[in-house]
Write the structure tokens for this entry.
Amino acid sequence: MTATPDQLAHRIGAPRLDIDPFSDDFLNNPYPYHEEIREAGPVVWLSPYGIWAVGRHEHVRAGLNDWQNFISSAGVGLANFRTEKPFRPPSLILEADPPQHTRSRTVLARILSPKMMQQVRDAFAEQAELLIDRLVEKGEIDAVKELAEVYPLKVFPDALGLADEGRENLLLYGNMVFNAFGPRNHIFQEAVTRYEPVREWIMNKCQREELRPGGFGDLIYQAADAGEITYDEAPMLVRSFLSAGVDTTVNGLGNAIFCLANHPEQYDKLVATPALARAAFEEALRYESSVQTFFRTVNQSLEFAGVSMQENDKVLFFLAAANRDPRQWKDPEVFDIERRPVGHMAFGSGIHGCVGQVVARLEGELILDALARKVKRIELIGQPVRRLNNTLRALDSLPVRFIPH
Ligand code: HEM
């Protein structure tokens, strides 16, 4: 009789935990569970789904950098595309391996280069100033609904070349895509129900005629004109920008303001030295990682951290757990904007490491810099409300008061 995966894990001595990383309880407060996973061993078996989990920094990094063994083309969520139908046509970059991945990545990386960021920087900075001025005048605001959602929805689609109308649909799309990396639980079902009415709008926005000439979206089509990618691939790569470029930064910004509101002594440091804005955003990404996890699939049987894994096993890499691993970080539970957390996993690592991180960092820096110069104190004036998501660490609402200088 062949052993079930559960028996096998037991036999080879890997720790087994009865933890559901997609339960409401886990997603509301993942940190105690991250610790349990990290401390149980470098690789543990999560019985509820029959998957491996990796939470230590060293091993998350090693796994993500081994793209030949831990592949993305079978999906970076719980579903295995080798045996299950993907819920949407797979991404040509995120859910691809070389050589397809290299082709797509070369084009997107050129469009999102540091040089290109210099070109959009002034426009992004102007919008950050305008927005924070407006919010300071208002005083009491919801920092998620009126800041973290508003800013990326303005600057990123502007740079992409999308018209103004209907941009809030991008939030529903991102929310659905990131939920779809988990199981078909109630959180996913609710996200799909909210997304259905805007599905057509999203797919339509990937077409060339919807994109302003010279914007990031049009540049993808120009790569098709140049023969680097096909005309069939171009809208799929625009789709990658639409799905990965908004909800991630919305939550990156929301989480950063949440951290600063909860640690007034750190916010004081930022006010004293606004040049710490970039470092503060980086530390917030480590401390409250907006993307918490990504899966890989084992390409063929292998040994990893002393554990035997079988072809097609799914492995869940906990970026957020690695970002608080005491083996890597001194006092990982301390939020310290002067830490400079080089090597954090919030943007992933290896060939799939976030291609949009220059955009995210620019947005984070400009917003925190404007806040530091215009707002003396951030006061929490109500209970923050979480938005549960199978992949993202997200807030639905963050009521604060901005006290101006
Ligand atoms: C704070 C904001 C962001 C976070 C935390 C974040 C996080 C990540 C992570 C962890 C990955 C790795 C996926 C993997 O290993 O499977 C990734 C990939 C990616 N990100 Fe981001 N991201 C952010 C913002 C952005 C933005 C603004 C864009 C677009 C402009 C973007 C576009 C992408 C794309 C296209 C990929 C796939 C790259 C590849 O597979 O080679 N991301 N991101």
About this structure: The two ends are 72 Å apart (CA to CA). The chain has one domain: 5-404. The longest strand covers residues 293-298. Residues 114-138 form the longest helix (25 residues).
